[in-house]
Amino acid sequence: MAKVSQFALVSLAICLSSLLGLAVAAEEKFIVEGKVYCDTCRVEFETKISQPIKGALVNLECRNRTDIRTITLTKDVVTDKAGAYKIAVEGDHEEEICDVSLVKSPRADCNDPTEAWRKSRVVLTTKDGVDGPQRYANNLGFKRKQALPECVQVLKEIGYYEVEEEEGHSHSP
Ligand SMILES: *[C@@H]1O[C@H](CO)[C@@H](O)[C@H](O)[C@H]1NC(C)=O
User: Fold this and answer.
1) Which residues form the signal peptide (predicted)?
2) C-alpha distances in angstroms, 137 versus 72, 81, 134, 149, 172?
3) Whose CA is nearest to atom 2 of ligand 1?
4) pLDDT at 8 > cutoff 50
5) Which three-class secondary structure state does DSSP give residue 153?
6) pTM of the model
7) What's the CATH code of the domain at 117?
8) How far is the CA of 31 from the centre of ligand 1 (A)?
9) What tens digit of pLDDT does each residue of 95-147 get?
10) Which ligand 1 atom sits nearest the alpha carbon of residue 93?
11) Which of 63, 66, 74, 96 to mutate to test the pocket of ligand 1 (most atoms within 8 A of CB)?
């Protein structure tokens, strides 16, 4: 009799834990990842001398797709020494529009959000064909107050000035 009830208890425990497992699996979980840089050349794109920013504040915000004024999720995160951040998000957000954006830079010499890379859209649903929990946001960047002197050389190497001339701009970083 004792054996029987022990068996019953064990099966009950197994049954319960697999039920719990199912409940967890049904709830989507995403990891939003990205990096924050200092745009040391003030060109609004990443160069080889862009610098990762540690301690930058980044915000993830989701809004209701049909009622854009309603914020459904907001999370702040601070970048690590590689300028990287990870934000864990629960649930499926198919009916929402989610963006990560720059909030604050810890560097007084590099705290001006760039136009082009201050914000990045992230898709937090598996219903649009993207599988897996990892969601990569585009890198975000603050502009340095003044371009570094090395920028001239770095930008020359990638043909930046030729393009500028073709486009009829006269621009020096
Ligand atoms: C979004 O807003 C609409 C209209 O107010 C509402 O019916 C819907 O449930 C909301 N969706 C989410 C995901 O909050």
Assistant:
1) 1-25
2) 19, 18, 10, 30, 30
3) 67
4) yes
5) helix
6) 0.78
7) 2.60.40.10
8) 24
9) 999 999 999 999 999 999 888 889 999 999 988 777 889 999 999 999 999 99
10) 13
11) 66
